[in-house]
Amino acid sequence: MEKHETRIALQYDNSLPGFFSLLDFCLSAGVRPRTFIRVLPHRPRAPAADQGELFACAERDGRFGIDETLHVPITDGSARLIESIERSHGPALPELKYAFLSETPIEAHAVEFARKALEGGGSSMSDESDPDVKAVLAAARKTRKEIHCFLGLLRFEPGSDDCFQARFEPDCDIAEELLPHFKRRFGSTLFRIIDMRRDKMVGTGGTHVTASNQGNPEAPDRDVDLWKLYYASTENPDRANPKLRLMHMPRRYWRYLPEVNEPHGPSEP
Amino acid sequence: MDLQEKLSILAGAAKYDASCASSGSSRSSKGGLGATLPSGVCHSWTGDGRCVSLLKILYSNVCRLDCAYCVNRASNDIRRTSFTTDEIVSLTLSFYRRNYIEGLFLSSGIFSDPDIVMARLTDTARRLRIDHGFQGYIHLKTIPGSGERALREAARWADRLSANIELPTESSLRTLAPQKSGAEIIDSMRFLKNSVAERMKPSPFFTSAKLPFMPAGQSTQLIIGASQDSDATILRLANSLYGKMKLKRVYYSAYMPVSPDARLPRESAPLAREHRLYQADWLLRFYKFSIDDILESQESKLDLDIDPKTAWALRHPEFFPVELCKAEFEKILRVPGIGVIGAQRILSARRASHLSWESLPKLGVSLKRAAYFITVNGKSRGAAGFAACRSDPLALRGFLSNEKPRKSGHPVKPKDERILENPPGQMEFAF
Predict the structure, then answer these.
(1) Which of A60-74, B111-125, B237-251, B286-300 has the lowest mean pLDDT?
(2) How far is CA A2 from its chain centroid?
(3) Sorting pLDDT into bands at 50, 70 and 90, what band is B388?
(4) Start-end of H helices in B353-415
(5) Between chains, do A156 and B133 touch, taking CB under 8 Å as contact?
(6) Sequence-ordered strand ranges (E) for chain A
(7) Chain B residue with Cα closest to A124
(8) pTM over 0.95
(9) Which candidate from B46, B271, B345 shows the least CB-CB separation from A128?
(10) Spans of chain A, pLDDT less than 70
């Protein structure tokens, strides 16, 4: 008789403390999860999922066949695990955090990565020939890369409440990570960053956008026109290299950039 | 003339300057506006793939000098204009708040006495810093012939100062830019370098080192192919500037004809040459190569078809294969297809586990190039191994070069041989 394998879905609240609670649960219970699917309300992947909550669950053969769902709550284990990793191999913590923020299904690899960190870490934590290490570091790198991109490519416009605001739809959950940089940059000037995909706002200029302070995107904007003129003036047709530009500035970012996304901007290569 | 027209002219006139870095400085807003990151930030990329980090403009394109290669030369019949300081300050702050730029790059034609021009640039920087609490990045050009007082004042407000030598020998300058003096430019670099060193000395009365003084250092630019100076001359000068003048960067800009002149080549210099010089520059700064490694045995030019690291590897078969499981960091760095990060990852990986051929691409190694020069656990990779190819070095060169292999097996000669030759009687700068 064929042995039936019980499939348990582990569910957590998609917060960072929830993520570390999940890792703590798996490590304490000796669970070695095979696969995780991350279901996010702004990017649903599983119709069977509860759209009100974010969760990770075991998957087999590309379909859900869940016998039991177990919700892993946020516990003190989260803080304890962070403390333990800090003691045994501190550099693993930011990697886990940035891997989590990548919103890729990283949990299974993260459990093993955390286990290695607790066992002393050392050089194995940067050994990218290990699939768990490679997956976590690659996910963390993806987040860092997007943060770095948007430090330069986020575009602000003045709202009618003297607050500069930027809207974007990043792949990773990075609005909070951008905040320290733009606080330093803006100084006493008020600003807000709006993550349209996650309906999230951060900044110093209040985190509530209303019809009265969101500004008028259709209104003529002298600074935008000057910027487009400046950008056009830097063009050097003798050195044109559209492939190189695309390598540095992929097309998915162009919608944020007035210098290239307007009818008079550079045409698509 | 309205602001739009001025911007179009004075940004267009500044675009031939290759430098646009905003790195090397760390400032915070302190309640004003702006901050800098040590790594710098790119805010856009131009159509030729160059990072746009700073608002790069001229204060004025009115110039008394008549340098043959320069679009702003006095004898050129172009529209002339100047910004006001208020206009530059306003543009910089507006663009900065939109997150279009990291700061300002301000150069100028020599429209008056050098000290007066330098003072205009410095005053713009000072007003940004003092009147508006601006802590973004400021790069100022030092004007040839400026006095020490003017240079010191510029260094107080700027993150970086640069003086473009443009041509790598005194004789080329004399031919193409007779009003410029290389020695004068190098003297100003030396003065600024010594001023930084002076401020770092401990003082019982006043710690001047804590006050910013061009924290991002100095840079310069060399035009490639406007004169007949060889790559060897250019690289020797760059190496001296890094070593003796402590420059942070030397930029190379392939010559482009902007106005007809019988003293200049009719055609642009190959961009590949500029690219190879940057690669060689990288090897000097980060890969512990010497000039002699890059250009051996009286060679005066870089191979346009093959990068300088691979060229060195092909000249030194006795160095290879490198056994990746045992070799030290410096030796791994010499392998084509393995960069600094790849070499670091290899060291980490082999401390933790056994290296294998399969794991190398995951570590960022380009096997397409490296496979010919390495062994892993004593094993080469099939026919790609260096030993297998040693019997046919021309074929190996063909595999690794940009050119398509020709039937004869010999590489194609560079197109513009004339300007790559090393002419006799060059007068290199003395340090």
Answers:
(1) A60-74
(2) 42
(3) low
(4) 367-370, 386-390, 393-400
(5) no
(6) 8-11, 37-39, 55-57, 68-71, 157-158, 164-168, 191-195, 200-203
(7) B352
(8) no
(9) B345
(10) 1-6, 35-67, 121, 206-219, 262-269
Q: Kindly report the length of chain A.
A: 269
Residues A198 and B411: their CA atoms lie apart, in Å, by 56
A132 touches chain B (CB under 8 A): no
Q: Name which of B157-171, B313-327, B354-368, B388-402 the model is least confident about.
A: B388-402
Give Cβ neighbours of residue A113 (< 8 Å, ≥ 6 apart).
Answer: A92, A95, A96, A99, A125, A132, A133, A135, A136
Distance (Å, whole) CA B308 – CA B305: 9
- Chain A within 8 Å of B44 (Cβ-Cβ)? yes
Chain B CB contacts of A237 under 8 Å are 47
**Which tokens hold the place of B1?**
């003339």
- Answer whether B359 touches A (CB < 8 Å): yes
> By CB neighbour count within 10 A (0-12 exposed, 13-18 middle, 19+ buried), where does B32 fall?
buried
Asked if B62 and B32 count as a contact pair (C-beta separation under 8 A), the reply is no
ipTM comes to 0.88
pLDDT of residue A69: 76
The CA angle A217-A223-A229, to the nearest 5 degrees, is 110
- C-alpha dist (Å) from residue B238 to A229, B139, B168, B207: 35, 20, 9, 32
Consecutive H or E run containing A139:
helix A131-153
Which chain B residues touch A189 with a CB distance below 8 Å?
Answer: 33, 97
Give the A window 38-97 contacts with B, CB below 8 Å: none
Partner-chain contact B33 A187, CB within 8 Å: yes
Rounded CA-CA distance A140/A96 in Å is: 7
Chain B residue with minimal CA distance to A131? B362
Contacts of A187 in chain B (CB under 8 A): 29-35, 133, 135
**What DSSP string runs through A156-178?**
-EE-TTS-EEEEE--SS--HHHH
Letter for the amino acid at A60?
A: R
Render B17-44 in DSSP notation, one character per residue.
-------S-----TTSB----TT----E
Cross-chain Cβ contact B37/A181 below 8 Å = yes
